[in-house]
Specification:
The complex is a heterodimer. By secondary structure, chain A is an alpha/beta fold. Chain A has 2 domains: 158 residues, D-Maltodextrin-Binding Protein, domain 2 (3-Layer(aba) Sandwich); 137 residues, 3-Layer(aba) Sandwich (D-Maltodextrin-Binding Protein, domain 2), CATH 3.40.190. Chain A is built from 11 helices and 10 strands. In chain A, helix 4 crosses helix 11 and helix 5 crosses helix 6. Chain A is elongated. Chain B has one domain: MetI-like fold. Chain B has a two-stranded antiparallel sheet. Classes of the chains: A alpha/beta, B mainly alpha. At the A-B interface, strand 1, strand 2, helix 3, strand 7 and helix 7 of A face helix 2, helix 4, helix 9, helix 10 and helix 15 of B.
Chain lengths: 334, 526
């Protein structure tokens, strides 16, 4: 009888553990905790699947989680990676950390924003913008190349282009303009005494406080300053006919190779890629622009079709990142 | 003691060894390719120069300030002395990055103070700002000087009072103080200075914010921009070598000084007969507190605004707060329990064992947190029994132990180094076992400094980010992660509220420190 009881108890425990495993998904997210957490909570409520999340911080520029995923490759812990940009997701793809998954929710997302084999899918985009202090600037620059002009000597800021979306932007310029013109641009910025600060949020704060007059940052950072009533406004640079356009950077979501809870991971990916979630991210402080067509968003949220976007191949951008980083290191980190 | 050494080796040294081994291998064989880029260009040497300059000046400033304050707090009868001791520990609680942001509000190009100065002088802009080397030294000094105050205070009250009294019989109290007590306290003070040197040398966030490029950026770039783990480890080695060289130099100097011994009479050092000059000393303490605590916390409190921000901060972040305090308590307790036996070997041992135990904690202290974090993942992410560590709070505690064991070890070593070895010899001669000697002789003489050590490493563990962000189990996040995340979105109000809440939550161990230090410092001739 005792032996039977022990066997029964073991079977029950095993069953409970399996049942628990069915009700769990682990997500690593570089999207800011303040805004990703409510969305993950909504997924929990809707599906009954518990979400355990690991977050990244601005200080590590997303690459904390990317490096963690690479280091955990042989024994993956995460099921899903929700990145707030795409170049580093492609790094993971190259290092065979990801596995393909074609979500049915991604059917209407434009092909330019997803991997053709399904290794990653883009959604809810940000864009690079020029932010300026309205107390100090009446005629803001309208092109990123204006920041090399004498008028902005020592008064313009960018995040150090070694990390985050600024690094992606730098690599995009290398991919789009070519190596020599891109190098000339960054050398001109350096010669014009541009202030390379520690991050996009810092750049925004410096401009809003009046420490700098203008800066390059992302839409979500710039929007935060406007919502807080600070003396700052922003614009999309290079929007004129024949101009370069601005870099549009989508979030990206992907399934981890060997994910412990792959089925639950796929459900989470489907949820994140839904138009409802894009609408929610658009309405939030981060003002992310939907990639699904016809998503209902507030009038203050720009539409992708209204922006002249830089024509980039994200794979080419990702391929340029190492070379760009080495050049930027030599130019700015001294 | 062997058990402590083994535990430390497994918890802290092994991840570093994994990374160093990885940096010296490629394609299955030995390779020094990762080291080929280290210090090859003028730019890298310039960055190293910035790092050494920043660390050296910060350590000097902290040592000078800490030495003066340590003596003032322990030997001059000041009003509200207990409260002063408590307040001086607060800068350790607030993350240096948050401190730096507060100072930019005050001394940035359009800071409150710089704007006022510019207006007074009729200038368009103030003649100075917080940016650059001087500003970075200023901010880091204000963040780290409490470490030196603490180590100096412990060393001063541990000094043998009878030697100073004997000195006073021959010369005045001033010469006795400087010639006898200062000599005895100097090793403790300099030990604090060395810790500050190492902390400042590896600092990256604050210099970056204040527009000073430092060598730590090289390792950070290899890790974050180039995904080159071997290169990141190799790039950190010059800083590790500098830290070990600094410690080596300190050890050579310390052995030339005479050791002071805790008096077995249990007498507290007497107050210095400074007369009305004690009010000058008190005012000096208040000025330092105004600059290092009141001004930056005032900026944070102003940013936080009303009670609404605190309520929202608590509502959204209480689980992270609980996690942070748990990690801090577990880490501090582990480090204190491990640090004492290691410090005993370092202070009583001989030969290579002593050197290894003395330098090993500093090696893990000097290695960047990101390198350590990846090392922990590579070592413990194996499935099976290793899941008892990886994926639990244990791996976060391991990260903190590796990062800050040097502080616990140094603190315990200072306390042990001032115990007269003849006390233990007498116990041994009487046939008392080493365990009984430890618990009956050594521990009663060092438990108060150990409480101070516990509180300091608790505070440091609470603020740890660079390694723990890589290994924190999903769902187990800390308050520092939340704060940095909020800073990204410019939620300065919430960040400020969280920083103030963190100070309040650490009040309990700080008050414990103040009570212990006050009883340890004593009320002479009450």
């Amino acid at each position: 009888m005792n032996r039977c009881t022990a066997v029964l108890a073991a079977v029950l425990c095993g069953a409970m553990l399996l049942a628990q495993a069915d009700k769990l998904v682990v997500v690593y997210t570089a999207h800011d905790e303040m805004y990703s957490e409510p969305i993950l909570d909504a997924f929990e409520e809707q599906t009954g699947i518990e979400v355990k999340a690991a977050y990244d911080i601005e200080a590590s520029k997303t690459t904390g989680l990317v490096n963690r995923l690479i280091a955990e490759k042989d024994h993956p812990r995460a099921d899903v990676f929700w990145n707030n940009e795409v170049a580093q997701t492609i790094v993971l793809q190259r290092k065979r950390v990801l596995t393909p998954y074609m979500s049915p929710a991604a059917k209407t997302i434009p092909p330019a924003f997803k991997d053709p084999d399904g290794h990653w899918t883009g959604f809810a985009a940000r864009a690079r913008v020029i932010i300026y202090n309205t107390d100090l600037v009446s005629e803001p620059p309208t092109s990123i190349f204006d920041l090399t002009h004498e008028r902005w000597r020592g008064q313009a800021g960018i995040a150090l282009p070694l990390f985050g979306t600024t690094a992606t932007h730098a690599a995009a310029l290398f991919a789009t303009l070519g190596e020599e013109p891109a190098k000339a641009y960054f050398q001109a910025l350096k010669a014009n005494d541009v202030q390379a600060v520690s991050g996009n949020a810092t750049c925004r704060d410096m401009v809003a406080q009046g420490e700098l007059k203008v800066g390059l940052t992302d839409t979500d950072d710039a929007n935060g300053a406007v919502l807080d009533g600070r003396p700052a406004r922003w614009l999309f640079p290079d929007q004129g006919e024949g101009q370069l356009g601005t870099l549009v950077i989508p979030n990206s979501v992907c399934l981890i190779r060997g994910a412990p809870h792959a089925a639950q991971g796929k459900r989470l990916i489907d949820f994140l890629l839904s138009p409802e979630i894009e609408a929610r991210l658009a309405r939030g402080r981060s003002m992310q622009m939907p990639l699904h067509p016809d998503v209902d968003v507030p009038k203050t949220v720009p539409k992708l079709e209204d922006i002249r976007a830089m024509a980039v191949d994200f794979y080419e951008v990702s391929a340029q990142m190492t070379k760009t980083a080495k050049f930027i290191q030599e130019t700015f980190a001294r | 003691m062997l058990a402590s050494a083994v535990v430390f080796a497994v918890v802290a040294l092994a991840p570093v060894a994994v990374m160093v081994a990885g940096s010296m291998s490629a394609d299955g064989g030995l390779s020094a390719a990762a080291y080929g880029d280290v210090l090859r260009t003028q730019r890298q040497w310039a960055l190293l120069g910035n790092s050494v300059g920043l660390a050296g000046l910060t350590a000097l400033a902290c040592t000078a300030l800490g030495l003066a304050l340590g003596f003032v707090l322990t030997r001059i009868r000041l009003p509200l002395r207990g409260l002063l001791v408590f307040l001086f520990a607060i800068p350790l609680v607030v993350p240096p990055y948050v401190f730096a942001m507060a100072w930019i509000h005050l001394l940035g190009q359009r800071g409150a103070i710089t704007s006022m100065i510019a207006q007074l002088l009729g200038l368009e802009a103030a003649p100075f700002t917080i940016y650059g080397l001087a500003g970075a030294v200023f901010v880091l000094t204000l963040c780290y000087y409490p470490l030196v105050v603490l180590t100096t205070a412990v060393a001063v009250v541990s000094a043998d009072v009878t030697q100073e009294e004997a000195g006073r019989l021959c010369v005045g109290w001033r010469r006795a103080l400087t010639g006898v007590t200062l000599r005895q306290a100097l090793p403790g003070c300099l030990a604090g200075g060395i810790l500050v040197f190492v902390l400042a040398l590896g600092s990256f966030g604050v210099p970056s914010l204040l527009r000073l490029h430092v060598y730590a950026l090289e390792s950070f770039t290899k890790f974050n921009a180039l995904y080159d783990m071997a290169g990141a480890t190799a790039a950190s080695m010059p800083l590790v070598a500098l830290c070990l060289a600094a410690l080596f130099g300190f050890e050579r100097y310390r052995r030339r000084l005479s050791n002071a011994f805790v008096s077995s009479h249990g007498r507290q050092p007497p107050w210095l007969p400074v007369g009305r000059w004690r009010w000058c000393a008190w005012c000096a303490c208040i000025v330092v507190l105004l600059v290092s605590v009141v001004l930056p916390l005032g900026v944070l409190a102003k940013e936080a605004g009303g009670m609404g921000a605190y309520a929202q901060a608590l509502k959204t972040a209480w689980p992270e707060l609980a996690h942070t305090l748990l990690v801090g308590a577990l880490s501090a307790t582990s480090m204190t329990l491990l640090g004492l036996p290691l410090a005993y070997v370092a202070s009583r041992g001989r030969g290579w064992r002593r050197s290894v135990v003395d330098y090993a904690p500093l090696l893990t202290f000097a290695v960047p947190g990101t390198v350590l974090g990846i090392g922990l993942i590579r070592l413990w992410n194996r499935g099976g029994a290793a899941d008892w560590v990886y994926g639990t709070v244990a791996v976060v505690v391991f990260a903190c132990i590796a990062r800050f064991m040097a502080v616990a070890h140094r603190g315990a070593a200072i306390a042990l180094g001032q115990i007269d070895p003849s006390l233990e010899a007498a116990a041994a001669v009487s046939g008392v076992s080493w365990l009984r000697t430890g618990t009956g002789v050594v521990l009663p003489l060092v438990w108060r400094p150990l409480v101070a050590v516990w509180v300091v490493v608790f505070i440091l563990s609470v603020g740890e980010l660079s390694a723990s962000i890589l290994v924190c189990p999903p769902g187990f996040n800390t308050i520092t992660t939340r704060m940095f995340s909020l800073m990204h979105y410019g939620m300065n109000q919430l960040v400020a509220a969280l920083a103030i809440m963190l100070v309040v939550c650490i009040l309990a161990p700080l008050m414990l420190l103040a009570v212990v230090m006050r009883r340890y410092l004593g009320n002479a001739y009450a």
